Structures are given as structure tokens and as C-alpha cells.
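User: Please fill in residues for this 203-position structure.
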């Protein structure tokens, strides 16, 4: 190999060595760029305002445990307090025989109490603003209502398609006297239920 290189001349040897070094530098630079890009991606992820908010306040394990216990106790207590009077009113212990409004109230009574307990746990035990569970900034009400409208439109479109494909599965039974109070109550309680679940398990 040395004799071959000598026969090619000193200039050629310098050229080949310089090219090899240059290629190695390029490969090293490319690797460093990838590492820097990964570091920036990790940094951007860790700098996410919502994730940063989770590190604020008091985060000892016993505080999380006590908050969970508080939520469970409030939920069961509220269900018991609401259920007992309705058992006397309805005259039966079979929940399936309750009126639709009564069943809705009993089944949803857990969530306002759980949301209250969660708010107390976050503000008193964790010493964080309750809104920090939702957003580190101002509440984007426009986006909230827009996403709700989009979801409602998609759900309505899906039901219309199913009604056209399988018309026998749908029947018009609207009764204003019975439906409107139930609708108003559901419009109040179901957002509380969904919000409580999302904040407790994912907030």
C-alpha cells in the first residue's frame, strides 16, 4: 500500500488524506446536528408550559394520596346523601325503576362533589391555582366552544347517516314536558361529569 501511495506522488497522498479527514469531519458534524436537534426537541418538550406547570406548587407523594382519598370520600358521601331521599321518594331500591330525571341526578351526583374535592386538594394541599389543571394561560373559550360545535356536528352527521341506513333503529318520541327538563339537567350535569373525569385522571 505504501509503495502504491509513493508511486502516486506526494500531492495525491495529501489530497486523499485531506479528503478522508474532510469526510470524517462532515460525518461528525452531521451527528452533532442530529444530537443538537434531539436536544432541542427534548428541550422544547420539557419547556411546554402545561408540563412546566405540573412542577409548580407542592408535589410530595402524600399530597397526591390525600387528594385522591379526599375525592373518593366526597364522591361516596355525595352519592349516599343524594340517593337516600330518592329511595324514599321513588319507593324502591331498584335504580332501573327510577324516573329518567331521578336516575340522572343520582348517577351524576358523584361528580360535582368530586370536582369540589379536587379543587380543594389542588389549591390547599398542592398550593396551585385550580385553573392550572386546565391551562397555564388564559382559558381559550373560543376554541372550547368551537371544538364542542365540531364534535356535535360530527356526532349529528353520524346519526343522520345511520338513520338513513337503518331507519328502523330511530323513532321520534319527543315530548316537551318530559324532554326539556331532562335536557336542561343533562346540559348542566354532563359537562361537570366529563370535566371531573378529565381533570382527575389527566389533569
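Assistant: Residues filled in for all 203 positions:
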Amino acid at each position: 500500500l505504501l509503495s502504491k501511495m509513493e508511486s502516486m506522488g506526494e500531492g495525491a497522498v495529501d489530497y486523499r488524506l485531506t479528503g478522508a479527514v474532510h469526510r470524517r469531519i462532515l460525518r461528525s458534524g452531521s451527528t452533532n446536528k442530529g444530537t443538537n436537534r434531539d436536544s432541542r426537541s427534548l428541550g422544547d418538550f420539557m419547556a411546554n408550559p402545561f408540563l412546566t406547570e405540573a412542577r409548580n406548587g407542592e408535589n410530595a407523594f402524600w399530597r397526591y394520596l390525600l387528594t385522591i382519598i379526599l375525592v373518593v370520600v366526597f364522591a361516596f358521601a355525595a352519592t349516599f346523601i343524594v340517593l337516600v331521599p330518592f329511595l324514599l321518594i321513588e319507593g324502591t331500591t331498584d335504580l332501573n325503576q327510577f324516573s329518567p330525571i331521578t336516575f340522572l341526578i343520582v348517577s351524576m351526583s358523584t361528580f360535582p362533589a368530586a370536582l369540589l374535592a379536587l379543587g380543594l386538594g389542588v389549591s390547599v394541599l398542592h398550593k396551585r391555582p385550580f385553573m392550572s389543571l386546565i391551562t397555564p394561560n388564559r382559558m381559550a373559550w373560543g376554541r372550547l366552544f368551537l371544538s364542542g360545535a365540531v364534535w356535535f356536528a360530527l356526532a349529528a352527521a353520524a346519526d343522520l347517516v345511520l338513520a338513513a341506513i337503518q331507519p328502523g333503529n330511530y323513532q321520534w318520541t319527543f315530548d316537551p314536558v318530559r324532554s326539556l327538563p331532562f335536557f336542561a339537567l343533562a346540559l348542566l350535569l354532563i359537562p361537570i361529569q366529563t370535566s371531573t373525569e378529565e381533570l382527575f385522571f389527566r389533569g
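For context: The helical segments are 2-8, 10-46, 49-53, 61-90, 100-108, 110-125, 141-165, 176-202.
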